[in-house]
């Protein structure tokens, strides 16, 4: 599905190679159509039309540009297709032994080349992706009441010690704690009145796990306890942890338009697909927008538009995981867990920051 004309124009002005293959643009005064990344002279907006495919442009009497050759498949497009196919293979076979060498052989690449290409396209290394898929299976099994030993085996982990190692850094808790609803996980929280309303920030020892707006402290605390029903949840004491209070102050200044968003540590916990969507959202530059369809295409699941929307709605970390940068394909804002007025304010503020600090 072709992006909206607004998104197409922005991508064209930026000569964004990430949009090559997603749409073409035609210049009615010169009679040619091009890739978004074409290096030819930038035409006036009123002379440009956007197309989903070459056939549509040619029906308007346009011919392919000789400079960017829009009909030719680029090496990047072929690499993206190959890495996404490999990602789907890993998801289907994650319980098996998958070494970098065996994956490289399947992709007809050297191990080092595969490592670079996979991370470029999917945002993580093959090893990280495999473990994410295994942890997804593990979590599903544990939620269904499967014993830790059986779930460990079904997910493809070789031993209980390995799964506890991985879970400690990737789930934020051990498998036993996860199946018990976060038992023994310590979470501290505080609230602050910001330019966009009351904000609660909560953190485990691994980073921020809950950043949300609400109408009252009681409502926010109820939501926090619902997310982590068995965790040890306590209010951050006045003058408490210096690092935590610095995070809160930094985010408050950003919401007031006084500084760009800081690079704050987050403790993300979700399914493999949710993590994939959230990681992609973190790559969208401030002030830029993507449609739900574009996000689905970017994570290699073009038909999973509704699942992308659900992953955005499941985001527990407002602003820092920027689901506000995802809009509907027709250019409308779509939904936002914390209200459309906040979404519009965040987008406008980021665009103003980008204009001030290009």
Describe the structure in your own words.
This protein is of the alpha/beta class and 358 residues long. Helices cover 46% and strands 13% of the residues. It contains 15 helices and ten strands. The strands form three sheets. A four-stranded mixed β-sheet has the order 3-1-2-4. The chain has a four-stranded mixed β-sheet with strand order 7-6-5-8, with helices on both faces. Strands 9-10 form a two-stranded parallel ribbon. Helix 3 (75-93) crosses helix 5, helix 6 (126-143) packs antiparallel against helix 7 (148-155) and helix 13 (292-298) packs across helix 14. The longest helix has 19 residues, at 75-93.
Topology, please?
Blueprint: H1 5-13, E1 24-27, E2 32-34, E3 48-51, H2 54-59, E4 63-64, H3 75-93, H4 100-107, H5 111-122, H6 126-143, H7 148-155, H8 160-170, H9 175-179, E5 186-194, E6 197-204, E7 207-214, H10 217-227, E8 232-235, H11 242-255, H12 272-281, E9 290-291, H13 292-298, H14 305-313, E10 326-327, H15 340-356
Helix pairs in contact: 3-5, 4-5, 6-7, 13-14
Label this structure with key terms.
single chain; globular; four-stranded mixed sheet; 358 residues
């Amino acid at each position: 599905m072709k992006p909206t004309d607004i998104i197409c124009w922005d991508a064209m002005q930026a000569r964004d190679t990430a949009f090559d293959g997603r749409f073409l643009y035609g210049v009615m005064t010169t009679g040619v159509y091009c890739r978004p990344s074409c290096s030819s002279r930038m035409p006036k907006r009123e002379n440009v039309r956007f197309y989903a495919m070459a056939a549509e442009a040619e029906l308007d009497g346009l011919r392919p540009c000789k400079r960017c050759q829009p009909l030719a498949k680029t090496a990047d497009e072929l690499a993206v297709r190959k890495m996404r196919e490999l990602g789907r293979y890993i998801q289907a076979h994650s319980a098996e032994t998958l070494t970098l060498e065996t994956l490289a052989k399947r992709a007809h690449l050297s191990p080092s080349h595969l490592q670079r290409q996979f991370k470029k396209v999917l945002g993580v290394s093959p090893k990280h992706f495999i473990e994410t898929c295994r942890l997804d299976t593990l979590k599903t099994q544990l939620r269904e009441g499967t014993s830790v030993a059986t779930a460990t085996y079904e997910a493809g982990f070789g031993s209980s010690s390995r799964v506890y190692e991985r879970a400690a850094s990737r789930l934020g808790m051990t498998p036993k704690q996860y199946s018990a609803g976060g038992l023994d996980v310590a979470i501290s929280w505080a609230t602050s009145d910001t330019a966009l309303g009351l904000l609660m920030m909560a953190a485990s020892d691994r980073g921020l796990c809950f950043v949300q707006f609400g109408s009252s402290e009681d409502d926010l605390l109820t939501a926090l306890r619902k997310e982590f029903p068995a965790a040890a949840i306590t209010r951050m004491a006045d003058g408490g942890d210096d690092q935590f209070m610095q995070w809160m102050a930094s985010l408050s200044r950003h919401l007031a338009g006084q500084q760009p968003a800081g690079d704050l540590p987050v403790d993300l916990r979700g399914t493999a697909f949710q993590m994939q969507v959230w990681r992609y959202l973190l790559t969208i530059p401030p002030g830029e927008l993507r449609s739900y369809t574009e996000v689905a295409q970017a994570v290699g699941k073009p038909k999973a538009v509704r699942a992308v929307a659900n992953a955005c709605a499941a985001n527990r970390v407002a602003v820092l995981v920027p689901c506000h940068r995802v809009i509907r394909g027709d250019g409308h804002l779509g939904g936002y867990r914390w209200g459309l007025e906040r979404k519009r304010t965040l987008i406008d503020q980021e665009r103003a920051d980008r204009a001030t600090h290009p």
